[in-house]
Amino acid sequence: MPSTFFGLTIASSGLNAYQIALNTTANNISNLRTVGYSRQQANRVASDALRVCAKYGSTGTGVTTTEIKQIRNEYYDQKYWYNQSSVGLYETRLDYLLQIENYFLDDGEDANGMKGFNTIFDSMFRALDTLKHSAADTEVRQQFIGKSQNLMTYFNSVSLGLRQIQSSTNDEIRATVQNINAIAEKIAILNKQINIIEVQGGYANELRDQRALLVDELSKIVPTEVSEVPVKNTNYPDMQIGSNYYTVKIGGQLLVRTDEYTTLECRVREEKINQSDIDGLYDVIWSDTGNSFRAGGDSMSGTLKALFDIRDGNNAENFTGAIEATSGNTIRVTNPSITAIEAMNMPESGLLTINGKNYKYIDFEFEYEKDAEGNYSITSYTFRLEDTLTTEDQSKMRGRTVSIGSAVDSMGIPYYMAQMNMFLRSFSKKFNDVLKQGVDLSGNKTDYYSFFTNTKTSDKTEFNFSDQDFPAGTDKITLKSSSDSYYRMTAYGVHVSDACVRDPDKLSTTVDIAGKNGVDAYELLDELSKLEKDTIVYRGGNAAGFLKCIITDISVDTQESKIFYQNYSNISETIDNQRMSVSGVDEDEEALDLIRFQNAYNLSSKMISIMTELYDRLILQTGV
Amino acid sequence: MRITNNMMLRNASSNINGNKINVNAMENQMSSQKKIQRPSDDPVIAVRALRLRSSLSEINQYYENNIPDAESWLEVTETALKNMEKILTDIRTQCEYGAGDQLTADDRKAILTALEKLRQQVYSEGNADYAGRTVFTGYRTNQKLTFMQDDASTKYEITQKFTYADLEEYRYYSDKVTVPATPGDLLNPANTVPNPQEAVFQRIRLSYGKIDSLDNAGSLSYSYTDNTGTVQTSPITVTEYETFEEWKAQAGNYTIADGEAVFIKESGELIMSKGLSDDIRENKGSLELNYTKTGFAKGEVRPEYYYNCKDVTNPDPDKQIEYTKFDANGKEIYQDINYLVAANQTLTVNTQASDVFDASLGRDVDALIEAVRFAQEANAKVEEIEKMQKMQEYSSDDSQAALEEWLVAAKKEAAYAEDNMQKLYNSYIGNCDGYLSKVLLAKTSVGSKGESLELTKNRMENQQTTVETLKSENEDRELSDIIIDYTAAYSAYEASLQAAAKINQNTLLNFI
């Protein structure tokens, strides 16, 4: 038979248990609005029964609280983290695409609206039309030149704006990487603390909540996989040790392993990858190994990938080719992917990637050919390297593919810059070639300047793009990256030639002023008019279609991002609802629990009063 | 599923936000009355809007710029042509007066005054301009049609083509009477009475007088197509003389051998023998003359608007300017100024001077003036001699006899002069008709251009309205539709706000 005061123990176990339960409820209620808090539950189990020497064999001994554990469904957590990377990806992409789209808006001639490419382009060609009627009038010429300048200034400002966006994505990449590092450190610290607490038994509920919140944040930035595996003693595999191995992988690569963490680092690129990139773009590498963290890879997701897509996206149009021959410090590449001067987007000096290794080149030459139908194409490039190649390197290279930069399959800033360059080079060449045939108002030939041109950074003179002309009778020329060709024209620096801006009379409208024609002859202007609608200038369409192509590109992209962001946010909300459904604190439930446990406590304390009365009767009033 | 208060609050919040997004979008639409604020709202509408805007700006250019400009240009041309018509009609009237018989000295004086005034105006209309640009000179709008001042140094080599139709009959008078001034002169036996002679030749007149030299005189020939279709040429021997008088002085008389011609540099005429001119007429031949002229007078037309010529004022061959009016096949080159007045439709707004102002018009009027002056002078000489007959100092019989002889000569000259004037004026009526018809043709052409421009203007006006409507249908929204949608969105927003207010008002604790 158990002890006389056994009942007291049982009742007091009840008191204890319900006090703990009430404390737990109080904890839940206080944390009603805490973000990321999972409701805790005190789990009670009937205490081990006591064997007694009596007919009834064993007797219950009350209740013990085995654990206070948070109610959380890891399955929903994993699903949430998996979805968050898509949310992050499309949210950031949408944000930046809207900014890029702003530069291509065109509200037409409304006074308050933004005057975009179409409006400016139209007004330039209307001014050209008016010029035809009075080709000798200096004021009308001035007007036309002014409108042409407007067009060039538009491209300059769009180019500047895009560069600024590229710069802010670059800064945001750096901030994001620092954020990742901070999160990794915090998770590692938490892991250590959780293990210390849990190895002693019990659950570190609050710390786990904090850790889950950190992973929530991290999963939006990069795709995150978390695995928690209990530590096992190999000699006694069933023994519960209490601590866990907790690993966090981002993009499939290890970031945190229990209490150790690795950091990422931003390294400034020494060589540009695209011709129109700004300086100082970052590559992300692991600080310990120096390997690159392919944040922009095809299988990646999250905010970081969105930033890389915007900053480096070139629509997979980077330069690739097959190595035909190598020599001491040159590499000759054939079958190039870029065969038009207008589409050249590689930098003047940069890095070639062959077999996964990077080789720096300082300049290059290319062969430009004209075929029987008058189509021009680049047939080969020869890159001059900074370092000499060993024979071993050379033997490995033969027949391999070479690329400059990587193919990022999204339409980001490098893509739009390259499109603007392509349009400008093609349009300017056709425009300039018409005007170079003529003479100005004084009868002097105008082939010594190009109407649309850039300024050389070396000596501040203007380009004349004469190197791109084929001498009579040849159909193959070799140009260098430093030649006077349209490769050097970029949207950032293009402008109307100073010769015309200062003196509108230098614009040519006819081939022969003094002799055959007169000052009002305008046959060259007729040819220029054709460039608006009737000549194929850009992407198989006419020049006026430039903005339509760009708008189609960007608005479809933006709309896609909007729709996907909406979808993934909705999914994220639904999953979060499920999470909250399982782990959220409900006021009414807690209020009911209060009643429940209070009643139970009252009953237990009543039990103790009854037991006291019993003992009282027994001790003081039985057998006295 | 277990729902917690937090979930309810969260859902309410996200629903309110969703409604707010709709209200915001409707509010944007209401302020701008456009369907889309940025292209990504609806890419199809955005691209269509760009296209329509382009079309509209083109149509506006036609309707508001090009067509009014063209109209003004045509108006200026029409005014100039109307003035020209009046001048030519006046000249023709003078020709009719002059062709009548029995003209008095006053009549002749009136004709002379009128013609001299008309001579000045003949090419002035050709210099008409529109906003400082000469309308009849093709692309050379910064130059006038005529020389504005006497220019002694300008030198041109000109090539002028002629056909058999340019041959005309002309009467030449020599041995004109100079009335003796004093009785001494009258009775001087050395002073013989001249016998006025008339010589009639066929001639071709160049557009200019005072020629330096006929450059292809040595190789001159006329060409014609015979009945087998082959082109034949026949040479002409040319003798050059400075003036008409020099001809007689050097050759002794005014005869031309058969197959030969005489070129008078001062008056710019190629005078042909009867046989030669008959041959040319019969064979319908044509010939080409190259000549050089230095120095042009005010009011003469510039050769580059009519003929192939070369400005050789500058001795440096690189700086000499060559003008082509006719290409290698003899086709005329037109310097058309075309205005784009509708899509794919151009209108030639200018008229070429060579179509309206004939280069020989000026020389015709000069010839008319010369003829009337000749008649005037001849009759004045007769009157003077008659007066002298009645004068005291000439009352001697010798003087009277001599005067009688002089009178006969003078009367003969006067008869020739009047006859010439009558015949010349008569034939020049035909010339004037020719010039008039050219001007009328140009005027009609300008008139019909104006009409077709009117039609185009009408069409462009309609098209402008159409494209504006299309543009509006594409991108604008009707305000009433927007207001309905906005009200609906706002009601939904208010309802969600109300619903959210009811959440969490009561919990279980209120009832315990």
What does this structure look like?
The complex is a heterodimer of chains A (624) and B (512). With 624 residues, chain A is of the alpha+beta class. Chain A contains twelve helices and 19 strands. Chain A has helices spanning 6-30, 74-103, 117-133, 138-199, 205-221, 302-312, 391-397, 413-436, 498-502, 523-533, 546-583, 587-621; strands at residues 40-46, 50-51, 58-59, 63-70, 224-230, 244-250, 253-257, 260-261, 264-268, 282-286, 320-326, 330-334, 350-354, 357-370, 376-385, 401-403, 452-453, 476-480, 495-496. A six-stranded antiparallel barrel of chain A has the order 11-12-15-14-13-16. In chain A, strand 2 (50-51) and strand 3 (58-59) form a beta hairpin. In chain A, helix 4 (138-199) runs antiparallel to helix 6 (302-312) and helix 4 packs antiparallel against helix 8. In chain B, strands 3, 6, 7, 8, 12, 13 and 14 form a seven-stranded antiparallel β-sheet that branches. A five-stranded mixed β-sheet of chain B has the order 4-5-11-10-9. A two-stranded antiparallel ribbon of chain B has the order 1-2. With 512 residues, chain B is of the alpha+beta class. Chain B has helices at 5-32, 43-99, 105-121, 183-187, 244-251, 274-283, 353-356, 361-389, 397-475, 479-502, 508-511, and strands at residues 129-130, 133-134, 151-163, 168-174, 197-205, 213-214, 221-225, 231-235, 237-241, 260-264, 269-272, 286-296, 308-311, 321-323, 338-342, 345-348. Chain B is elongated. The chains are: A alpha+beta (624), B alpha+beta (512). At the A-B interface, helix 2, helix 3, helix 11 and helix 12 of A face helix 1, helix 2, strand 14 and strand 15 of B.
Question: Could you provide a short overview of the structure?
Answer:
Chain A is α+β, with helices and mostly antiparallel strands. Chain A is built from twelve helices and 19 strands.
